[in-house]
Amino acid sequence: MSRRAANCSIKMEKLEASVVIEHIESDKSGNQTDSQDEGLSQKSECRRSTQEKLVKINVPLPNLNHQQIDTGATHLLILADTSGSMSGNPITQVKSALKDILDGALDQPSMVTNLILFNNEACTVNLDRTNYLSQVEKIKSGGGTNFSAAFEHVGNEMRKVRKKTDKKIEKTVIVFLTDGVDARLYGTKTVEQKWFQSLMASVENSAGRSSITIHAVGFSKEHHYEFLKKLTEQGTGEGMFRYCEPGDGPTVLRDKLQELFDFVLSNATSSMNVMVSIPGTNQILEGGTAKNSAIYSGEITKDEGSGKSELGVDLWMLISDPDPTNLSVAVEMTIMNKQGKPEKTFVPCEVTTTQRQIVRAEEKVVWNLKVLQRNSDVLLADIGKAICEKNVKENLSNRVDKLQDRLSQVPLFRKEFNKELREILKGHLDDIKKKIDQMRNVLAEFARGNTQSVQMLARAHDMRYQAKFSKSRRQRILDKRVAKNMPHLQSAQAQLDQIQLDREEIQRMSRSSTDFFVCTLSLNNIKDILLDSDKDDAIGFGLAVRRQEHVLDAPTLVELHSISGTLVSRCAMLDALEYKINCEGQLRAHGGFDFSQPLGVTTIGQSREPINAWLPLYCTKQHWERVKVLLKPSLGYFCTLDPLGYDFQQMDVMFMILGSMVGELSDTKSNDQQLKMIFCFLRTCQACVQEFSLENKLTEAVRLFLTSPEDRFKHKLPNLYTMIGYVLSLPANTITQILDGEENLRKFWLAMVTECLRRAASRNLREINSNISHGLIDLILHGKKEKDLLEESPALTEYLKLMLTESNNKDLPLTKVFDPREGLTIDDSMTKKYDEKLDQALEVWAQAELDIIRNKNQASKVNAARKAVEKWQHEGRAAVVVDPTAETESGVDDPCSLTQSKLQHLAMMLQIFSNQAKPNIQSFLGCMAFIKMWLGQSLDIDEMDKNDGLPPEKWIVMAKEAVKRVYSCANDQLKRFLNTDKDKEEDTLVVQGSVNDEVSLVSNSEETQTAGCNQSKDKGQGQNVNEDNDDVDDDNDGESGDESDDMNDDMDNYYLASKPRKIVKDVKKHISLPVILTLIDPDLDVMQLTRLLMCQIILCHSNSKARAAVSSKQYIDFALKVDYKEELRKLDSHLIKMREEAIKDVMESVQNMRANYCMLHTPSMWAFIGYLMCTYKERGQGFSDLVSTIVDDNCQETYPLLSDKVRVMFLGKYNDHAVLAKGNVWIPDAKLSKKFATALGEEVWNDIEISVRSCVQLHVYRESDIPNRHGHCNSNPYIPNELRKKLGMPLL
């Protein structure tokens, strides 16, 4: 016993303590399995994995008088800031918080509660249980903030309460609800210190010897965190600080304040301090650190039966001794000293029992969750402390990652877990997940705050789009990136500072270079930017983009509205962005992630084009030294509107934009400025490949694109333009090895074009079912019958226009359903035909099948029965009549022949898909020309460095000639398609894309006039997806076009040349898919390839369907040599097989209906068994129809022996013979049980159900014993309470 306790005048009864040490079972090496140590500090890391124990201490409190355990009353003072700075959302949140706090506090008999409102002055609100809600609603904000008045009023109120109340005030708890904003606090810490001193002087004079705790709750984004945190440290013990975010609703706010109120409430009720000590190597874990002594607040509980009180406390310890005997426990008690005055002291306890408990295997998950809960709390406290001290280290982020990894390994589904336990575990898991999200968010915000010390990020950070992603997973990803990127970007600032420029070399730059590399906004040229501007300034170019949230997962899906030819410096772009944000807000400046808003415009370019994004250019070697440091934060801002949001996948954005720039080339749109920009950006991309070691990655991607169809799909390559950028950015010697020769180029472009169309089709085909898709294929293979076509139709062009413009939307107008049952008729009289004479044959047949009849003398009888059964089955099949006049053309018409009807429907579908293509089909011409020129001429990119960053003039000339040459070939091919020989038997298909210049369609006697054609510069060259398409690897992954386009605009561009009868003037020209395919390979059978391609597109339009086809080796790789006609015939054979199977299914369905009717009406059980056995092997669809007929509420018919028949249906046996489903029982669900109880009667059904349940054996549920969605499994089967009563089982 301590000296202080020994000198007390009152004799204390000896206190005894019992200790329970709980731990998990160690492995053979002595180590505990699954030790969870993510949240603890580094000091205890080396030993905790082998010694971690949960210690539970219980101290009985016998015969203690009230004074010894009475904690006295608690005085709760709530100070609510009602100044003008709290107006709006903060004051609304304060009111909500007050209602929750007062609702719990006013019910506590051991608590005195006061509400103080303060602004310029402070006043106490008179409230009680009856009027507190109305009093809170009256609170309004206004005036200034005067903490000095609030502090003084606190002391006055404490003195008043102590004079009025007869309760002994042992604890004083002060809670501030404020933003902490007082103008007099800024600029000096002297005022702040004086206020704290006056507060504590006033409080201590009023409180006497009672303890004082001050808590603070901060509201609004501008709350004074440092002041409020220091305020919580002014009491005799440290209080809590909580921050309520502006977006927190009442529920979230209540959850955040619950911990604070629980803390206040626990101090206001029965609790006592317990001091635990253990010397030597054994240590106590508190707050993530290991120590030899710690004080805990224990809870006093009272046994209602015996009336005895008990004090309990749980703590974590590192114990290496098998039986620690040096553990000491002391309880803080109030006793009388020699002067007769009460005094608090720690009274030692004798540890009488020490018990060990090893956690059983089934309780191991619960143990791990306890450890995770503790570690998450410790880590959260460590992060908070590190941020307050502004000393956040990278290991904190690593500890959060480790905690997340441990959490993901916690199993929820085991056979020993019942439903209730799983719900408890899930609640704990959700709680820890929220804490992890909170930690990531805090670390990310701290990292963003550090950008103010990094010059290159500071301004961009100020203009960061502070919007929450709708999916918490994406928000976690961004927060994780921010915390990860900050250390690297801080070192990047040092790299900028260390760059040494060769000023003489910069001064020697050519006039043409300085005239080209000029910022349009600031008029500074590259010399000015390198020599006189900030170190984080650089030359780049402007773009206009739209972003959706999924760019965080797939950056290349950012939609390019336009690529500007205007050069802009980084600082000038930031100036323009800052000005636009200040004037019109962020959404008007850059669009955010909201597609519902108009395109955000930061500034405009030389041609009045919109600009809202920026990327840097290589320009020169010295300029590149600066650009390569700025590139990652620039890409981070480009994709996520946060300079710290960079991810390595965003480097693909550079290649995607390069491919998009090349795709804009055409014979009428290839000017010098455009080509110079392309070559400059190509130089930038090649420098990225070298600087960031991307060559191997790009090489592998191009190789797989050529050889593997699955590596062309959207989940691997979200934007096809990225592959164009890959090809151009690889070193010349590398890419020429991959695309060496015409054959490899042919494979590459066939793969590119066919994959582009497959993706385009997904938007139109998203909602179609298999019957419609097979119907469309049937149209391509066989068309429509001649009788269905318009007689004496006008020119096919006009006919197609009329047909397509009648559609009310842009979806596929051709919705023919392939009905393989077309032309089938059923004789309904056969489905309800019952012959009593047949029952005898079925009886004999069933007994023979079950080997009951063995007498050879009855062989003739058995044979006669079998013949009767076969005849009955044949009659059922004969009830289905196939009408030959209604059959489809499958099997009659040659699917490889070409007719007018087939070409019409092919043209319709191809036109719709082509209009949705991203990239645009015609853009491949520019890409084909530029890549062929680049690879064929073996140009050396280093020549641009010798020319001060500009491409040699001969490169510009070669690029122009290459593009014109390709377009000239395309136009010649188009003329050949349009000028079809009248005597030629084969029809020719020309499908048009988007609209630009005009072309005339004439007969052979007239001359075809052609004009140049521009690529439409609309909705951007990048990929666009629907707003509800969150993930890249989505089955419905079509890229949507511009929804505002008119249906007529889409459909006016169909043209079909098939022996044209007259001139159609003023039609508009666009290079068609057949033209592109002919340019890729003149020897291709373009017509049959197009037909086969459209069939595969319809079958494999989604990523999942395409991947499934690749896995089953049914996907056709058009980059390889393919026998198109043979594949078309295979498709036709598939349709024929589907029809044959459909006829078979119909016949089986009719036979099932006949059998069901006979089974229900036969008065013989053996006849019923016969019908059942010859019709059903398993409980399939026909059997389900039989069940539905029995339980049908509207059925008024009475069936003989129904209960016995139902018993057989569920048991699968009759007289111990397996007659259905190999004799396996069928367990009905609750809903079906109720229906059978209604149909058969409760008593009859209960008897059947008991028979069924009694036959339940293992593996009725999943063999793995994983519970189903209702929580039932082999070890916990579903048995209704009615049956449990009869079986004597406990009720649910």
Automatic annotation (TrEMBL):
Region feature Disordered, mapped onto this chain = 25-47, 1000-1052
Q: Which InterPro entries match?
A: VWF_A (IPR002035), vWFA_dom_sf (IPR036465)
Extent of Acidic residues compositional bias? 1027-1052
Feature: compositional bias, Polar residues = 29-43, 1000-1015
CDD domains noted in UniProt: vWFA (cd00198)
Q: Where is the VWFA domain?
A: 75-264
Please name the Pfam families in this protein's record: VWA
This chain belongs to the protein called VWFA domain-containing protein
Which organism is this entry from? Magallana gigas (Pacific oyster)
